[in-house]
Write a structure and sequence with these properties.
Shape: globular
Oligomer: single chain
Strand content: 15-25%
Number of domains: 1
CATH superfamily: Ribokinase
Structural class: alpha/beta
Distance between the termini: 13 Å
Number of helices: 12
CATH architecture: 3-Layer(aba) Sandwich
Largest sheet: 9 strands, mixed
Helix content: 25-40%
Length: 348
């Protein structure tokens, strides 16, 4: 799998260690486009599509984009079941270091049920009693030697689908060892994360528009995306003046706040088969860009390319994404790309 055209001597970081969900899921295509009601029964059909969980998605793309020069260490847990064995095998095949992923006897691997409307938008329901819920602060403590080894040159990733206290412990380890601290949250966690003071421990926070609105309590349907983004960035900057933020908004593109300037990247032209996993793909592209030495505004552009190509797959991991497929995808775009992005995508 051809990785980005990076010179290992120029990489800003050498490895990423992170916590988050590891598991699998199913897709269900709903009939009719109106939003599913609280007590509604709706017909539909199961789809032949593979769903993966957040730590797996982000880790896969980061590794696929950066290749053997950059190590990725998931810290997680799966059940002693066929799903867990299959997911671990797929993670190993892409080159992830699985030495910090444990198998929990008697536990079930995290499962997600994704529902999709006819326009390819949708959401998911995720089990809250899975092996991933047993990824504890002690699980992070067991990896302290890894964080020490990455002192000043690694990335600590705190992704959803494991307990908040576990992610808080990882961010503390990242702080203690001077790592780049990257995090994301789902909408329902935003208030708790703010209350716990987790935002103050984050260098790069990745949100979608709904999650961004939850930061300030804005009513999303009454706001234009730009207003939501500006209000969110202003609020987060008051809480943590050093924070950088990316906010994805589907067809509206994405925004990136680098501490000084708010960058907007229009959405790239694509054919949407499934939008599930696009936000995680975007974050992975941003991380890869930052590792390659791009400023956040340009790393955001790489994230947009990865997300734009990812939605062409029915699965939440588009396993054909690499330097070559991204270069081909970029070649069909009318939006200008930075010279740095083109250099990363050029054939060796």
């Amino acid at each position: 799998m051809p990785s980005l055209n990076v010179d290992g001597r120029k990489l800003q970081y050498s490895a990423m260690a992170g916590v988050g969900g590891i598991g699998w899921g199913m897709f269900f295509a709903l009939n009719h486009s109106h939003t599913l009601g609280r007590e509604e029964s709706r017909s539909g059909r199961l789809l032949d599509r593979r769903d993966y969980c957040k730590l797996h998605i982000i880790s896969h793309y980061v590794k696929a984009l950066l290749g053997p020069l950059f190590a990725v260490y998931p810290i997680g847990r799966v059940g002693a079941d066929e799903a867990g064995r299959r997911v671990m095998q797929e993670m190993w095949e892409v080159g992830l270091d699985m030495s910090h992923v444990r198998i929990g006897p008697g536990e079930q691997t995290l499962f997600s049920f994704c529902f999709q409307y006819p326009d390819a938008s949708g959401g998911n329901l995720t089990t809250d009693d899975s092996a991933s819920q047993h990824v504890t602060p002690e699980s992070v403590a067991e990896a302290d030697g890894l964080f020490q080894a990455l002192e000043g040159r690694g990335i600590a990733l705190a992704a959803p689908e494991v307990p908040l206290e576990t992610r808080d412990r990882l961010l503390e380890s990242g702080t203690a060892h001077h790592l780049l601290r990257v995090a994301s949250f789902v909408t329902a966690e935003i208030a708790s994360a703010l209350h716990r003071g987790m935002v103050e421990k984050i260098d790069l926070l990745a949100l979608n528009l709904d999650e961004a609105a939850a930061v300030t309590g804005d009513a999303l349907d009454c706001q234009v995306p730009q207003a939501v983004v500006e209000n969110t960035v202003a609020h987060l900057s008051r809480v943590n003046p050093q924070i950088s933020v990316t906010i994805t908004a589907g067809r509206h593109g994405s925004w990136a706040w680098d501490g000084e300037e708010l960058h907007h990247q229009p959405a790239f032209e694509t054919v949407v088969v499934s939008s599930a996993g696009a936000g995680d793909a975007h974050l992975a592209g941003v991380i890869a860009g930052v590792v390659a030495g791009l400023p956040l505004g340009e790393a955001q552009q790489l994230g947009g390319l990865v997300a734009g190509l990812s939605v062409q797959s029915p699965h939440t991991i588009h396993k054909q994404i690499d330097r070559d497929t991204l270069r081909e995808f970029a070649g069909h775009q009318t939006l200008p790309l930075s010279a740095s992005i083109l250099q990363l995508l050029e054939a060796r």
